[in-house]
Amino acid sequence: PLALLNDPTLLKTDALIAGEWIAGASRFDVNDPATGRKLVDVANLTRTDAAHAIAAANKALAAWRGKTGKERSIVLRKWFDLLIANTEDLGRLMTAEQGKPFAEAKGEVAYGASFIEWFAEEAKRVNGEVLPQFDNNRRLLVMKQPIGVCAAITPWNFPLAMITRKVAPALAAGCTVVIKPAELTPLTALAAAELAVRAGIPAGVLNVLTADSQNSIAIGKELCESDVVRHLSFTGSTEVGRILMSQCAPTVKKLSLELGGNAPFLVFDDADVDSAVEGAIASKYRNAGQTCVCANRLYVQEGIYDAFVEKFAAKVRALKVGNGFEDGVTQGPLIEDAAIDKVQRHVADAIAKGGKVLAGGHRMQGQFFEPTVIAEATPDMLCAREETFGPFAPVFRFKTEQDGIDAANNTEFGLASYFYTRDVGRIFRVAEALEYGMVGINAGVIATEHVPFGGVKQSGLGREGSHHGMDDYVEIKYLCLGDI
Ligand code: ADP
After folding, report:
1. How many degrees, rounded to 5, is the angle at CA 480 between CA 478 and CA 484?
2. Going by DSSP bridges, is the β-strand pair 438-441/416-420 parallel, antiparallel, or unpaired?
3. Helix axis angle, 186-199 relative to 161-173, nearest 10°?
4. C or N terminus of the chain, fewer CB within 10 Å?
C-alpha cells in the first residue's frame, strides 16, 4: 500500500532529534494489521537517545518561547495547511499501519489537523489578568508562561490526532516537545513530523522518538525521571497511566492523562429508536470499536428493548469487514492478536453466562473479528466491567431511570457516556447524574477540536482541545508590584 504514496518522501522510518533524522543502532518492524505483512522497519531508539532529545528540546526552548504568540501561530498554521494538503498520503500511511478504513483515516487527518488550526489561533490569546489591588500602593498582575519542555506518549488507535491534540497546544504556548508515538503506528507520526519540519518548526522544538515496546518502557522512564521535562501527557491504558504517574512523582511533574473508558450508552423508553440505533452503531463500531469513547455497554429500557435490539442487530449484520483499502469496508482489522483474544474472551464469557448472540460472535481469518451483538447481557459478565476495545456490543436491559443511571455509574472509569431520550427533564436529570467527563445526548459521536475532551475518576486528568486545552501547558505567575 505504501508504493502508492503521491509523495514517497513522506515515508520516514528514522526518528527526529534536534532536526536530524536518526537511524538508531537497531530497528523494529512495523506491520500491516490487515495482511500481517511487514511494511518497513523503523529506528529503535534507546533511553540515551531520549536524553539527547530532552537536551535538544531544552536547548530550543529559549528561542521558541521568545517568539510572539502570533509568530508561533503562523508556523503552526503552515503545518496545518501541509497536513491537509497531504491528507491522501497521511490517510494511506495510517490505514496501512493501523488498519482503519481509508475514508475513516482521511477523516482522522482532518480531525488531527484541526487541533493545530485551533491552537494556532489560541497561541494569540494566552491572556493575563490585572486584579484589583488590596492597597492603592500596589498593582497585582497575573501572567501565563510556557511550562517548558513537554513529553507526550501516545497510543496507536488515533496515530495522528492523539499527537496533535498534545503537541499543538504545547507549541502554541511556547513549549518544546519530545513525543514517543505508539510502536505499532510510528509512520503517521513521522510523516507529520516531516511536514512540521517543512512548515518551519525549528530544530529541537519537536522531537520524535520511535522505539519498540521494550525500549518504549525505558524511554518512558527517562521522560518521567528527567527534571528538565516539566509536563507529561499520556493517552493510553489506565494501567500504564498509573505507572507513569508514579514515575513522575519524584520530579512532581504536571500530568495530563487520558486513560481507559467503559462508556455506557443508555436508551430510554421515550427515545427515537432509529436515531438511537444509528448513534449506537457510530459510537460502538468506529475504528472497529477501538476508541476510548466507544460505547462499551448498551443499556436499553425494557419497554423499547426488543425493538431496539432487532434494528440494531440487523444494522450490525450489514457492516462490511475487510482490508481498509477496499471499497465499502467500514470495519478494518483489530490492531494485534492480543486485541482479538480480548474480544473473544468477552464474547465467550457473555455466551457462557446466558447472553444471546444476535450478530457475529466469531473470530475471522487473519486479525478480524465479526461485529458482534449479544442481548440479555448481565452485570456479572466481563464486558460489564472491562473495556472490550473491539467490535462487540453487549445489550443490557434496565427498568427505571435510576436503575439505568446506577448501572452506568457502576465503574471506576468516567470518560464518555451517551443517552437517548426526548424528555427535556430527563435530559438534565441524567446528564447531571452521570459521573463522566463527557455526555452525548441523542448523539453518538461528540469529539471535535473546540470542546474539552477528558475524563473523571480513573479515566484521567485534565482536558484536551478547546481553550481549556492550553491550561496544562502554561504556568500561572502572580506579580505583586509595590511602591506605585
Ligand atoms: P494501548 O491500550 O493503547 O495499547 P498502552 O497504554 O499499552 O495502550 O500504550 C500506549 C502508549 O504507551 C504506547 O506508546 C506505548 O509504547 C506506551 N507504553 C506502554 N507501556 C509503557 C511504559 N511502561 N512506560 C512508558 N510508555 C509505555
Report:
1. 150
2. parallel
3. 30
4. C
